[in-house]
Amino acid sequence: MRTVTLDILKDEGFNLLKDLEALKIIKIKNNDEEINASPSNLAAKYSGAMSKQSPGEIDKQLNDLRNEWD
């Protein structure tokens, strides 16, 4: 199996692809699936989810978490 990306220039081209999918020759993926799967969009999706902290603060939090298990 190979994955390729196509730019469809005319509606007739998309209709041909749908016919190939109906014959179970190809599978058409939604653009939304591809967008959600790309790593660059994950960065955009979670941008600002965490507050900025200094490396020292992060190290302290990690050490505190590790010490909880001791």
Walkthrough of the structure:
With 70 residues, the chain is mainly alpha-helical. 59% of the residues lie in helices and 0% in strands. The protein contains four helices and no strands. The protein is elongated. The termini are far apart. The chain has one domain.
Quaternary status? single chain
Which spans have pLDDT < 50 for at least 5 consecutive residues?
A: none
Query: What is the count of DSSP helices, taking H or I runs of 4+ residues?
Result: 4
Q: Over the alpha carbons, how many angstroms does the gyration radius reach?
A: 23 Å
H/E topology pattern: HHHH
- How many E strands? 0
Structural class: mainly alpha
- What characterizes the major β-sheet? none
Question: Helix coverage percent of residues?
Answer: 55-70%
What is the overall shape?
elongated
Number of domains: 1
Q: How much of the polypeptide forms β-strand, as a percent range?
A: under 5%
Separation, N- and C-terminal Cα atoms = 49 Å
What is the element layout, followed by pairings?
Elements: H1 11-22, H2 31-37, H3 39-46, H4 55-68
